[in-house]
Amino acid sequence: MELDENEDIVKSYIYENSGIIVQQTGGQSADQYFYVKDRLGSVRQIINSAGNVVRNYTYSPFGQVIEEGGSFDNPFMFTGQYYDSEIKQ
Length: 89
Prior knowledge:
Layout: E1 2-3, E2 9-16, E3 19-25, E4 32-37, E5 43-48, E6 53-59, E7 65-70
Antiparallel strand pairs: 1-2, 2-3, 3-4, 4-5, 5-6, 6-7
């Protein structure tokens, strides 16, 4: 989970088989966002509890983002790995 400077929960994650499947923004009663992945474990879509797509990705065979949509803040991308926007990897 991620905490702010007051030690309040900002985000928490639920993992299955070492891959993220759900992100919660805030505490236990906060909104949940579900990760839809391909066979490599790459995040293709993120959907909210109502079933609406809030973020989507299309990758090249080597992991470069070809197309993306939505505005949901997500650090997990190709093969489910953390994406650092400063170094673009």
